[in-house]
Design brief:
Length: 161
Amino acid sequence: MNYIIRKIDDNELKLLNDFLYEAIFVPEGGQYPPRTIINISELQVYVFDFGKKKDDICFVAEIEGIVVGAVWVREMNDYGHIADGVPSLAISLYKQYRGYGIGKELLNKMLIELKELGYERTSLAVQKENYAVKMYMSAGFEIVDENKEEYIMVCQLKGKP
């Protein structure tokens, strides 16, 4: 599958709402929540006014002119927040584009960008049942905390090749 990874264009920022919804993990056989769930404040923190803060960074995956996935970070008090100055990461792809290595490529691109910008670490929250846990671990994320449903994971960027 041929795709390119690039920074998001300002006119594409509205797509982050789509990818926020796609990032909601639903276990096998589970029912998806209504799309309006992304309007709750705990989720809007990921996308509201994205691009207006200096630490708002987003890369997208594009196939034949269509954006099919995104990875974005910002400093925010979200589910994966561990400390001020540590950007939280979110990533998702449309279902039909999962399993092709695009997510891994998006993630790696973001980790390189964060390191080049001088960040020492980044964090995220992920449902324990989510298959993406393996991808995060292979990219260098470690579990630093957990609750009944989620892991809080951190990737140390300092010293990372």
